[in-house]
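[scheduler] slot 2 assigned
[scheduler] job type: sequence-to-structure, two independent chains
[scheduler] chain ordering preserved from manifest
[runner] begin chain α
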Amino acid sequence: MRNSFRFSRCLCAVWMACFVSIVGLDARSWSVDGAGWLTDRKLSREVQVLFGRETALAGADVEDIAVVLLSRIHESGYLDGKVLAKVTTSSGERLELEWQRPSEVFVPRDVDVARVDYELQPGVRFFYYALEVKGSSILDYEGVKGFFFRDPLPFQGRSAMVFTPGRFAQGQAQLLAWLQEAGYPDAKVEGAVQEMIHANGRVSVMVSVEEGALRKVGKVVLEGSLVAPEKLEEQAAQFVGQPLSRHLRQELVLKIRNTLFGLGYPQAQVRLIQGGGAEPLDGAIRVSVDAGDQYRVGEIRFVGHQSSKGSWLRSHLTIHPGDLLNPVELDRTRMALSGKGHFARVEVSTEPSSDAEGVRDLVFELEERFPWALDFFVGWGSYERQRGGFVLERRHLWGRGHRASLKGVVSTKSSYGELSYLVPDFYIKDLSLSGRVKALTREEPSFDHREAGVQAGVSKWFPDAALNVDLLYTFQDLEVSNSRLGENREWVDDRTTSGSLELRVTRDRRDSPVNPTTGFRWYANVEWASDLFGGEANYQRFEAGVSWHREMASGLLIHAALNQAWVVSADGDEEIIPVGKLLFPGGENSIRGYGRGEASLRDVEGKFVGSRANLLLNLELEQLLTDSLSAVVFVDTLAASRLASDGLGDETLSSIGLGVRWRTFMGPVRLEYGHNLNRRPGDPNGALHFAIGFPF
């Protein structure tokens, strides 16, 4: 959110650039046509980047652009493709030139060019049709095939099977590298095209493999100025018997060097002793070791900081006076300070200590960032329409990394304000203490509600497991008004208070939190509201979910998510749960055939009522069309029940849909339409959504 204004400005700039690049082609002295609208636009932008927007082209430029276009269509598998250039000179003379191979046509350099219209004639696209494998004893057809092409998947077409000489050579190189890493340093790979049918683009190839002898590490010989030889030999012994490869050698050197670093030898040098280029038949690896001098840490000083407290800085040290000087640990400390976000620069150096020999003082040079930050943001969504706000933040308060922020958000449907305070590393590392005062007014499709209250909690981050645990206490004043809900109860238009404890556990192993392609994320939330915690409401709310992402093939992604939520009353009377805590599914991040809240259960009169148990399944296939543009098809299924005790048997809704996404650093800009498969009376046929951010 806080970067949304900057994102919006960037978004506007990109849209303007795209508009100019699409609409303004005729303003240039050249045009590209013939390969499809999208491909033509992509190639036009590439040419624009390479050659600029000159109003006039020289003869050399005409030829260079043609070669670039020709290489791009050849790289896409159109090996017989041609590029035609219709040149108009300043005198009105017209020339027609044709390229099928680079440097096939020479354009006179003295031609006074007024305009060039390039016509692409891709012709037949070439694909792998047959692959014959000879000589390999460890890889079968399926094992070798993966280095050259993949079988087409749904919605992908045959793009993964495109043949080009470059891809064929690359596949051979990758296969050879794999064999060498598997312990076959003498392996040879040769490939040949057996048949190429130009009429239909079928290509048959043959790959011959000579693996040679399998080489394993027989022994590791350490030479030079050895210290703690038993420890070094113990580390080296772990590599004996493993397949001999370049990667293993590098890992061995790194292992021994880091062992010496841990023993206080920061200048240790470790290198392989080459044996004249030939691999030793006994699998021996000779390693030269120069440990250098051993040092310990002396005085630790910080320079350049203005407001940072020395005690706070020292609390982030992972290396201390008297410790052995370990460069790995020293860099870990530097990264820990840099990761706090309070410093523009963190550098560390060592210098001889005046107290004793074999001691090095550490000097951390710091450059603090400006402590104030003000961000504005604007946005638009299918339900809230226009939205805007600001975040004012004061960082690094009291010189201890504390943060205070003021946030305000206004849309056509809601307003939100928040004042928060954060204490990071509260006594122990990665444990933070937070507090906030917040107020929300929001117009939902079936009612209006207001929330105002305070929240305090602690959060613990476990970096090795990518796990975050939050424990929160919240006290809120809750009010519902202007109810359009069915089955009116006394509490619908009433006002109540809620005091609750909430436990949140989240584990995130995705490669990106905004544009995930691989990995998974799961979470579990448990909220317990009771008069024991100072409020009037008594209920328990549970929510758990998992999302999974995987790249099935080059450019083809699969996304799946399963989420379950239910809410019950503490005393067994499920009719007194505050309406704002009930479940009202539907919208761009729920079941997408419905607008926000429109997938909620209905009463006999067709009016919405909140559910107390939901199970939502989302499944997507996303095909990347360009580096930033993709198409998606999805299926969403929702099971819901009026009472949690009824399980999930009351109602099931499903929708299918498709959409396009533009990937940005803030997440995908989504335009999606969901169509409902089993509509109830009063339900829409479907819903169109515009949103920013991944749906789950």
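[runner] end chain α
[runner] begin chain β
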Amino acid sequence: MNILKPLAVILSITLCTEAYAQIGFDDELLFDPMIGEVPHVLSAVRLHQPTAEVPASVTVLDAQFIKATGAKNIPDLFRYVPGMLVVPEPYDNSDSIVYHGGPALYPKSMEVLIDGRAAYSAGLSAVGWNQLAVTVEEIQRIEVVRGPSSTAYGTNAYQSVVNIITKHPVDTVSEHSISIQAGNNNDHYLKAQSGFNFAGGQWRVNAVDKGTDHLQDNNTERLNCDPSCPDRRDVNMINLRGYYDLSSNQSLDTAIIFTNAKRDLPQYILDNNNVSEEKIEVGLRYFNELSTQHHIQISAYGYQFERDQVQTVNSLPVGYSDPDLFELFKINPTAANQIALGEAPTAINASNPQEIVLLQALTLKYVNPVDFLTPLSGVSYAQTEEIRADIELQDTYAITPDLTLLSGIGYRVDQVSSASYYGRTITNRSLRLFGNINWRANEKWAFHAGLMNENSELDSSALSYRAAANYLISSIESLRFVYSRASKNPDFIEQYANWSYKIDNIETESPYAGEYFYHTFVADGNLKSQHIDSYELGYYGKSIIYDAEWDIRLYYENLSNVIYLWPAILSSTAYQNNEIKFYGTELQFSKKLGEHHSIRYTGSVSKADSETEQGVTEEELLAIYSPLSQSIGFQSEITHSINSMLSLFWTKDLGGPSSEGNENVEFKRMHLNIYGLIDVPSIDNISWALSLQHDLSNDPSIQHGSKYLQKTRLQLELGINF
């Protein structure tokens, strides 16, 4: 990677959102002398609020809980969030996370933030969950806002928001640790962390090297390759975060992250298929407390991302590269596929002269059909480069102690260059204006209203708004009534795709070889924004007597103008005129069982109805969907220095809602984590952990008809803290 490119990003960086940093104006709201600390969240409307007053359902996974799970793969944590479905995506050797339901590959309906920096890749229209630029150990808490939050975070917060908040450098300035984890499936996880003072600031650096052969040991049927088909994933990361206390009322946060990832992809008819990715991120946040009632925040981040996919083949039928078949696919993909499969081209439109001419040309070339199968060898390189710069000014003003206005303006530039996916360089500029107002009317009622307008070159405007009322039974118990309308602009790949694979270094005995694989996909560029209307009735409560906390969400969500595009070259078009209705209930409940034990339960019961346009089935639109998903976790303090957590997960009928028979998958998994500390005076302590994961179901994948050979995973961890 050219060193000048990351430097250009750093120099051009200007400004973004780091929503977690908002501080409440009245901290007394977070403490009640009768009950002690009042639970609070940060992410729902960008304000530090008591949970009972939040106009949304929020799930919080704090550092203590995350450690107890033993998870090193961040997507696994979302199995503890109601309504979240986590599935391995074998076609990309990655994980997908969907809220309620949606297409399997690259769902694009939630905003994922790491200390305010969006993890969403514009060029790929995806979140790289397994390559997130954060280590599990440095996470302070994860807040998941379930329901539309576009009024606070923009177009990608269409159905939900995931806000990953890392530990403050001030709190880790004297912490140093080294740890190693190893297990079957060639798993390894190496991590080093150090906190220190430098140049007047507090800093923390993390370095991670992790890898796994994943769980696809037997994928012969599923992925069309032999049992030794490679499915390795490796990630290296260096994460540097710093904090400067500029004065009594001003501060500056900085972050620099470098990530390198490699993974093997399914081979199909290929002999090799792998992806390498490099990403450098830089973030800045300036905070100024102008007065006790007035705060401003200027934040910025930018990144450069490079992705290289290499595919080699030694036995591709030369007809698959024929230029006439390539042209035919552009105008009649069905007919082209029929010819490629050796079938009669019944889909040819006899009234289209161009199709007839192409068919005649192919017929003359391959009078002997065997000639179509003449082997071809070659290499295809699919390269992508992205650059992003984002700037935002946020103003928070407490008009009165009970009335707070949060407003701001943001500007983002995304630039994507790819000969394979777009055939050119594309730039998208977007401007967002937002405002959120919170009013504590009296002891019993709190009201919220929010508005976001995001103008983008992808679509002219995406307007989102929300209104909510919370009836406060007490400071730790409330009913909430929420209506939201959110809009989501089309993604790059949906609006601008000009997708084809060029074959280089061609070797074949046939005279009919062309430069491109015959499949191609060209977007029509006329897609419009999607919309969701969400209605929510919620009940939040905390019992001091019973030492329990719960949240119940009843919802109805109507998604209209839904875009469906299978983000692969096998697609022939994008479909817009689809509608999905979700309705159901979600529950999260936690309770301490005596002084040393606790239990946590999450459950989701839902129903999905859809209306699809011709060319799209309900199973495609809702490839990941489940009417019932649950998790339960038991935490236990075995001794003063030894703890454990046993978790059970169950997802029923994972698949399209109208699927029948054995097409649906029932996912069941058990996970046990036992961990502890050994005091060593000369250093600090030694940490250890033993994790056991066992699949109780036949196939924890959305792909059907095959079983994993490796149903049990065992990992051992040892760490030194000093």
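[runner] end chain β
[qc] chain β: The longest helix spans residues 353-365.
[scheduler] slot 2 released
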